[in-house]
Amino acid sequence: MSESTTNDPTTGESTTRQRGSDGEKWLSGFVSLIGLWIAVSPFVYGPAASLLWNNLLVGGAIFLLAGYNYYRLTNGYATSTGVMSLVALLALWIFISQWALGGEFAMSGLGAASTGLIWSNVVSGLIAAGLSAHIAYTGGREVPTGTAART
Q1: 41, 37, 31: which is closest to 68 by C-alpha?
Q2: Which of its termini does the chain have fewer beta carbons within 10 Å around, N or C?
Q3: What range(s) does the SPW repeat-containing integral membrane domain occupy (predicted)?
């Protein structure tokens, strides 16, 4: 894990910002793969008109954004907390969209999503949201030097 040290001009206290651990790097890669799965899952379970474009666009965005964070971490840069926070929000949308988008089509019988696709989105959305929120939280932490956390 690489670190950078900065001095706070107001307090004179030195803080160390962690540049990302190997765990953050691999979790970012895993979240990126979850995004890829979300994007292709409508084709695995059979296309559902209600969720096809939602999964393609949002899953593709999760794949690209989490992949970008993985790229940053493998090249020695710090975790992008903004990017991973956006990934967490997009993953929560994948979870919520089952009822927001799927409900209106399921009532009419037009392009209703299969049970497998719905459960895939629920589980994938929750896992991706939890992991990306964890990465955003741990990546944005600043640890003061000389405290118990740094010893």
Answers
A1: 31
A2: C
A3: 26-132
Cβ contacts of 128 within 8 Å, gap of 6 or more: 31, 34, 35, 38, 62, 66, 87, 88, 91, 94
Torsion sign over Cα 26, 135, 71, 94: positive
Q: Which residues pair with 4 in a beta bridge?
A: 17
Q: pTM to 2 decimals?
A: 0.74
Q: Which position has the token pair 């009822």?
A: 99
pLDDT tens per residue across span 40-63: 998 888 767 778 889 999 999 999
